[in-house]
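Late entry, evening session. Most of the bench is empty. Finally got around to the prediction I had been postponing all week. Sequence below, unchanged from the version circulated by S.P.
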Amino acid sequence: MALRNKLRKGLLFVVTLLLLAAFIVPLVMIVINSFKERLDVVRNPFALPKTFSWDNYVEAYQTMNYSHALMNSLLVTIFSVLLIVAFSAMLAYYLVRWKSKLNNVILMMLVASMIIPFQALMIPFVSIYGNLGFLNSKFALMYFYLGFGLGLATFMYHGFVKGVPKELEEAAMIDGASRLRVFAQVVFPILKPITTTIVILDVLWIWNDFLLPSLVLVADDARTLPLSTFYFFGQYTSNYNTAMAGLVLSIAPVLLFYLVMQKQIIQGVTEGAVK
């Protein structure tokens, strides 16, 4: 038994190292190649740079119009996540507390909507909303993210709201609190673990999304960070070294967000798993 346990732990350790390498190696390669010359990236992308220079980052910052693209990404991500959290939490609360056949149908439709891939909706999406004049607007993009993210978030909140004791709400209503105040001050704070999980998933999804913004944001001054990296790829040339530097600049805010919020993220995910 002792030998079997050692073999099992050793195998688990090896598998963990392989998974770690699968996630870390691509990121390391991006950072290494961001310091190289363009020809050096093409010749041997696995080699270390001969000299470490920040010229690629300076060029990428200027080409991407980084500060403007960063503000666009922050604006779209923050407000989209806030809208998804607010509307999905209230909708899940309504579906749980006011039970009816119609509410069951609404919940099933939300769950069913997650099965449909976005790629199947691309052409009618651009055609219909383009004719309505909804394209090339960051606020329209937030509205679209709300629509595409509402189903999963509502489904996740729905399971958690079921675990909230009704007695807490009844006690608050006896004290004179309105239904909206009960939700905001009693129910929603209890949903903190699942809220943290939803925020993490949606921030990563919206911040790194390329396909939907590429269909909605046509003007150059409205581009987000993922769209700005497209500047480095032309019809006949590709500046891989500056593109790698641009990718590092695009990833940096998300990594900073994770490092700052690491304790809250781990706590929220852990509490959600226990729940």
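Two things to note before I forget:
The chain has a mean pLDDT of 83.
The CA atoms of residues 112 and 151 lie 8 Å apart.
Will write this up properly tomorrow.
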